[in-house]
Amino acid sequence: MNTWYNIVWVYSSKSAQNICQLYVNNVAGSNNPAGTGAYDPGIFSTIRIGMDAPIHNGAASTFPGKIGQALIYNRALSSAEISKNFNEMR
Fold first, then answer.
1. Pairing relationship of beta strands 27-28 and 7-12 according to DSSP bridges
2. Pick from 35, 34, 3, 9: which is nearest to 24 by CA?
3. Distance CA 35, CA 16 (A)
4. pTM of this structure
5. Which residues are CB-contacts of 18 (< 8 A; sequence separation ≥ 6)?
6. How many degrees, rounded to 5, is the angle at CA 76 between CA 51 and CA 72?
7. Alpha-carbon distance 49 to 90, whole Å?
8. Are 23 and 82 in contact (CB under 8 A)?
9. How many Cβ atoms sit within 10 Å of the Cβ of residue 31?
10. What is the DSSP code (8-state) at residue 38?
């Protein structure tokens, strides 16, 4: 309770592996392949912040907390940019 986290998810389709990188409080986790095959821009045609998509005609679930700020970029941020944003926004 009363704890804030800075979470950044970076998706880069520049490589053949379509790499995802997750940062929590400016600390990067390991690179994880997002999947196989060519980049599909349709994956990101709908962005939901604080809500999951309904699964198998069921109800969507919502995030049980508060989101202080959400930023969406049209490119993958570098580690230096993520660090700069983290330090400026805390």
1. unpaired
2. 9
3. 10
4. 0.61
5. 11, 12, 33, 34, 35, 36, 39
6. 35
7. 20
8. yes
9. 14
10. S
Strand 32-33 versus strand 27-28 pairing type: unpaired
The string of pLDDT tens digits covering residues 58-90 is 777 787 888 888 888 878 888 899 999 989 887
Model confidence over 23-38: pLDDT tens digits?
Answer: 888 888 766 555 544 5
- Compute the Cα dihedral for 69, 44, 32, 82 and give only its sign: negative
Place of tokens 């944003």: 85
Query: Is the backbone of residue 57 left (phi > 0), alpha (psi -120 to 50) or beta?
Result: left
Amino acid making up residue 80: A
Distance CA 76, CA 73 (A): 7
8 DSSP assignment: E
